[in-house]
Design goal:
pyruvate-formate lyase- activating enzyme, globular, alpha/beta, seven-stranded mixed beta sheet, 22 helices, 2 domains, Rossmann fold, six-stranded parallel beta sheet
Amino acid sequence: MAKILFINPVVREEDDPRHVPYGIALLAAIAMRDGHQVQVYDENAWRKGSEVLEQVFNADHWDVIALGGITTAYGSIKSIVKKARIICPHALIVLGGGVLTSLPREMMGFLPEVDVGVIGEGFITFPDILQKVDAQKADWQNIDGTISRTKNDGLVISSQRALLDELDSLPYPAWDLFPLEEVYFPNSQVLFSEEGMLAQRRLDINASYGCSLVCRYCYHLGIAGDMKYETDHHNELQVSFDQPGNYSRTIRYHSPEYIVGMVKHAHEKYNLDFIGFLDENLMTMDQYSKRTWLKEICRLWIENGLQPACIHDDIEHDENCKGIHWSGTSHATLCNPETLKIMREAGCSHLIYGYESFSPHVMKTIGKGATPKTNMRSFFWTLESGIRPIPNQIIGFPNEDFQAIYENMQAWKKLGIVVKPFFATPYPGSEWFTVYRQWIEEQYEGDLEKYILDLGDATRITAVISHNFNAVELLGLRDLMMNFDYKRIEEYEQYWRKNHNIPDGAPSTIFQAPVNNASQKTGNIRLANGTTGSR
């Protein structure tokens, strides 16, 4: 049986490590179930630098070094695999996760040290790779869902891997392999609700995979039925995701019995007081189950003794409260008061809403299906249920303009809140990355890898896809919005209109979306005045 070293790369260096890597924890559990010897080095948790990483590589004769993560972990992954190849020349280096799946051919080019890439979901693919390792057969191209190297240094993508239908067949994550007591439990607090702020022993779970929506800034990377294999003009397989007008979705979720059973197991083993649902959109799954899924989870939560004592006894919450509070994600058009009240009764403390914008003309281009009215309605419904709504917003959408800025500020006034918006970031795998790819690369001197290395969690600005504002303008306008500084925004709007030859009273926009593949490929953006330009 193979000796496997899993490495969790560093992500969000500016923040403390807060989340056990769920995917790696699941794959580790699967590998151990199949009899393999498994160790984990959680570089994101320990952050001990290159000297300790070298010690880890030298600690044993590893057959497989496996790592993965989201695209923003690319910089860490690049340094890890370089060191791994030098110290462990005979180990098979396997890379998976969104960072590989979003750009498989490009990533294998950027990272020549990687032997095999896992495209999409790895629950079946990774065990198949380990079987080949045990049999000492390196015919990776015969394993569905992989990209590997040929003898002449080319790349071959195998057939597409089907998604796992029976999610409940998965073992519980191997949380024991990670530094819970040393790192993760001390960083349990989530500053979105009183219960979250007092959390002392939190773990996160995935109850579902994917989402039914077609938000153009979002990516699912093969776990939602969004991935397609297509042959290009060189007769090579290419992986593609959402493209304008071409969407597909597969909805999958664990049974309520599995979910609550896993939480109860973790509660009894680790004495948890908080669970975070990592799901993209809990309400999507609830809608697909005909509004039974969340209700059944809540019923079983209470039946299994997980309901927080403060709710059961109708008393104020404090750090000594027994039971498990929890949080997750919601959607403005899919939530309803009845379900929200049931969720609160079971211990839901806060729900994160991706409102994105309160401007009707911007919202129509996003693909989310929400309106300012549904955004506002869901906010107050959630508050009335006793759950705290956490609104997320984004600035810098392709057709963001001054009207949108004013409409967002007006909505904040009505809601009594201020939101610090994220920046619209075209992550690889999203529709807007596909549409604006050449424009993005032009902002990085034609070097895609520079863009990948620059990507963060959208709290700082990277590539701009706004047709009306550049990076400096977006940064300044966001600060002025948060201070409700109408005076300076209006002054700048007059300067901006003069600079773009747009008279007072005319729409404050030079936006017109690319209308065909030719404009997408050239990177040229057709402007309202009939000229073209590219930033």
